[in-house]
Specification:
CATH class of the largest domain: Alpha Beta
CATH topology of the largest domain: Glutaredoxin
Strand content: 15-25%
Distance between the termini: 78 Å
Shape: globular
Number of helices: 14
Number of strands: 23
CATH architecture of the largest domain: 3-Layer(aba) Sandwich
Helix content: 25-40%
Organism: Phallusia mammillata
InterPro entries: ERP44, ERp44_PDI_b_1, Thioredoxin-like_sf, Thioredoxin_domain
GO biological process, one term: protein folding
Number of domains: 4
GO molecular function: protein disulfide isomerase activity
Pfam families: Thioredoxin, Thioredoxin_6
Largest sheet: 5 strands, mixed
Radius of gyration: 33 Å
Strand order of the largest sheet: 1-3-2-5-6
Amino acid sequence: MATMLAQTSFKFYSFIFLFMVFFHHCTCDVVQLDKNNVDVILNNNQLVFVNFYADWCRFSRMLAPIFEEGSNLVKKDYPDPGMVVFAKVDCDSQPDIAQKYHVNKYPTMKLFRGGQLVKREYRGQRSAENLADFIRQQLKDPIKEFQSLDEIYELQRDKRTIIGYFTTKDSLEYNVFARVAKLLKDDCQFYVGFGEASKAERTTGDNIIFKPIGETNPDMVYLGSLANEDLLKQWSQDKCVPLVREITFANGEELTEEGLPFLILFHNKEDTESMEKYSAEVSRLVSFKSSINFLFADCETFSHPLHHLGKTVKDCPLVAIDSFKHMYLFPKFEDISQPGKLKQFILDLHSGKLHREFHHGPDQPAATTAPPAPKVGFHAQLPKEVVEKAKVVHTQKQILIKSKDAINTVVTLEPGKKPSAIPTIKGSIKIKAPGMNEPIEVVSKSAPVKETTPPEETSIESIFVKMKPSEHRYTILDRDEL
């Protein structure tokens, strides 16, 4: 009897031990999202940290236990329901969710605040402590409260700043302001004052202003409804995220993942004049904001791409497009202020002209009149189909005709045959090729015939594509030139 009790007790405690071990290592604290619960989870928690993964991806498998451990660490610090949730999405079984949030690599970790996607995803080290610390930083209040307007008047104008002047902290308007500040805390600094501290700036009621960089730039007042979160968010985003942004090694990966080609000004930091010219011209191209990223880069920092373009720091300023396949150099920076010049450069990218000319040379102007008369020398303009049939040595649309005894005779071009060369010739040559009804007569002066070959093509491949997420950290989904 005692033996049976001992065996039963051993089995019971073994079961409890195994259950506790399993419970400790299971992913039950990380919520599995699908189309049925994703909106509820995102909208009913202050922060939701989501791991988008694929089971077949080795980096996803490596992250899974780390993500779970990070969740456990955060839960100890913030145990209250509705504060923080770690969640995951199986992108193979939930492709619609992955597509909605533009997941193009595995694993991808994105943060949602109050149901809204935070622009910057997590790109830091993949350790439980780093993940936990990232969340701790996100929960800090990004708004600095001032006690005197003197603090605002003495602010350095080296950062974009949004300031709220409110009567009380308990108002709906301030809560809207606070939510927007949390979404844009990486792009702007936020200040707020209540009651007597902000009274002098509230002569017409609660209000919000934006202070741009630079002492001479005027403040901008928000004129929309303070209770309209979408409107305030859009206004703040337009002010905090400039049209022209600097690219660095710190944000390069993030910018490449926005999926837009780059228009980049390379300039020296002390050269403010070129930056002003570039910014002024870009301000006229706002309609292209959704199809290209307007950037600037320090020549010293990005000397390698300049070298790739055959340029040095001494050649700055200069402008180039990086399509993630090739780099295209704007001909002359001095022409940037010519009306429509930079705009046409962008249009040529999107029409495919830059890519086409990169591989095949400059486009030939379309013929608007009758074909031109044959040129002096031994070049005859022939129809494209004739060129293809004859298969002779040619440069673009011109064929080089050579013969030893072709004075006042008809030379028939034969497919697959190269014409023989001669040093000089006088008189005229009549050329007949397959597909031609009548010979073309070419008049020649006495002159040596020189062998001509097309210029060697210089490859200018994309440099900034190398700033994309590394294949040593992610499984990348294929993308071609933008």
